[in-house]
Amino acid sequence: YARFMALGLSLLFLGTQDTYDTIRETLKAVTHPIGKQASVLMQVCAYAGTGNVLEVQKMLHLCAEHLGEKEDQLPQAFAVLGVGLISMGEGIGSEMSLRTFDHLMQYGEPYVRRAVPLAMALVCASNPVVGVLDTLNKFSHDNDKSVASSAIFAMGVVGAGTNNARLAQLLRQLATYYHKDADLLFVVRIAQGLLHMGKGTMTVNPYHHDRSLLSHTALAGLLVPIIAMTNAEKLIMTDSHFLMYFLARAMYPRFLITFNEQLENVSASARVGQAVDAVGQVGRPKNITGFQTHETPVLLAHSERAELATDKYIPLTNVLEGFVILTKNPDYQEDEESV
């Protein structure tokens, strides 16, 4: 349980970047292995979501070390999670980290391999990318039971609240495959529960406001079960399965619900489509592509964005996500819609 003491200390510095130097120097005086664990975890949390390439390189250096049998290998597992945690903030960094994880899985030490699926889950939380699902499905049949349990739990986090039919099929196959192994079957059931969370209306992704803001509370809620899964056999699979409840801190509805100024529910037409990066383009470029028009409330997937279909209402926020208050447009005329 000492790893959670290190995590608690690290969460105090979540997203603060280089303000943790004093504490890090203090931790160097600790001769017990927990000093190194806390130091790595603090470095990881301080740069979470920043996409800082230099910090990712430092983490990869840690992962590449070949430690002896008697040395503590947990800092390496935290470093792998760190690669995912630091690069989860932006698209290109996430893609590069997924390629790095493939290399770590092939050439890494046992502790490194166990942490790779969990790091993938952090990068793609509630975003069931086909390539990632295939990779995790492959890892879920690994000879090392710890790698298999990490991969199955990661599948649950990656598909959390999406009701993804392909993932549901893969998990059903895994339930049949592991029907004699009570521990792994337990993890499969947890993953299935996460997949159908809120009947497909929830998300555990810590990013909100059009994937530009990081919720520290949600990230902390996501990190506790993931850190627990680094030693699943002694924590999750015995008497500490209650640690999974921390995921509730990260759960959030992915609805777009519209209200008027009196906070009464209002139904408005909204276009929902794939988000397009229009930063720096001249004029008024389209922000979404391949859209469909729905009446609110409407569900938004990970890479989707919404905009109002008519000028009947003016939103009080520039990002249509979650709860949005609309005001009536005084200049709007009904006959415009028919034209």
Structure in words:
A hairpin with a 4-residue loop joins strand 2 and strand 3. It is globular, with a radius of gyration of 22 Å. It contains 13 helices and eleven strands. The protein is α+β, with helices and mostly antiparallel strands. Helix 7 packs parallel to helix 9, helix 9 packs parallel to helix 11 and helix 10 runs antiparallel to helix 11.
Which labels suit this protein?
globular, 11 strands, four-stranded mixed sheet, alpha+beta, 13 helices, 339 residues
How would you sum up this structure in a few lines?
The chain has helices at residues 2-11, 21-28, 33-46, 53-64, 74-87, 91-107, 110-123, 130-139, 145-158, 165-177, 182-195, 216-228, 335-338; strands at 202-203, 207-208, 213-214, 252-253, 255-259, 269-275, 288-295, 298-299, 304-308, 313-315, 322-328. With 339 residues, it is α+β, with helices and mostly antiparallel strands.
